[in-house]
Amino acid sequence: MNELVLARDAAHLAGGVAIKYYGKPLETISKGGVDFYTKADTEAENAARELLKQHSKYPIFGEESGGDRDAKELWVVDAIDGTISHNSGLTSWASVVCLVDGDTAKVSAVYIPTAKEMYYAERGSGAMFRGYEAQPLPIKTTEEEDPTKLIVGFDLGYEGRGWKLDGVKSFAGDVRYPIAVGSASVGASLVAAGKLGAYIIWDVDINDTLPGALLVEEAGGCAVNERGEQFTRNDRTLIAAGNEMIKGFILGKIGE
Length: 256
Fold this sequence. Notes:
By secondary structure, this protein is an alpha+beta fold. It folds into two domains: 3-138, Fructose-1,6-Bisphosphatase, Chain A, domain 1, CATH 3.30.540.10; 147-254, D-Maltodextrin-Binding Protein, domain 2. 33% of the residues lie in helices and 27% in strands. The chain has helices spanning 3-19, 39-55, 83-88, 161-172, 184-192, 206-218, 244-254, and strands spanning 29-32, 35-37, 60-62, 73-81, 94-101, 104-112, 117-122, 127-130, 137-138, 151-155, 177-180, 198-201, 222-224, 238-241. The strands form three sheets. Strands 3-4-5-6-7-8-9 form a seven-stranded mixed sheet. The chain has a five-stranded mixed sheet with strand order 11-10-12-14-13, sandwiched between helices. Helix 1 packs antiparallel against helix 2 (39-55), helix 4 (161-172) packs across helix 7 and helix 5 (184-192) runs parallel beside helix 6.
């Protein structure tokens, strides 16, 4: 099976499992601190894993059950990126699958079940969007270079929220509106589609960052780390920006 098709199918399958539990107050299982997962996370991830195993030889790394995250080529699965949103009945969560090849993602699929929307990309082939019962459309990041005309998304994760909020404060007064998204993959997808001017998330793992980074780059934007270097699997802070000017603006602000 074509790798991009497989990624889309696995993301869609995971989303189909996750949506059955959407908005239901499931028992939470602690990961430490305030982070948690639910049976929806594990069931959705297992469904995606089984499909990938049937059609691919690559190892799989899942947010909940782990795996060989250091393999050169591997599938990355985040069956519910935005567990808090999912468990609380909020709409900003996604089921995400990507194939990593080397330092970056090769294919990526981000499915948002609450909207029945799929964002996907293959390295070197551009980024696409498919809405419910609609034809796929190419997507592009924004060309707007004036921060005061752009919405910038962010997420704080589970640790170090104080210093991360300082980063948000550094640019919050200079953009049209700063908004917490609730899901890294959703935030990056919205940058890829030109709906957000930029998105930033600090100190998270590859399941939160690599899928969206590919989407943004293939849509014509920038995906970099906090030093302004191209984002790779070794980085934990993702800055996704619609264009070079906005990238420079965000980097300049958080570096002040």
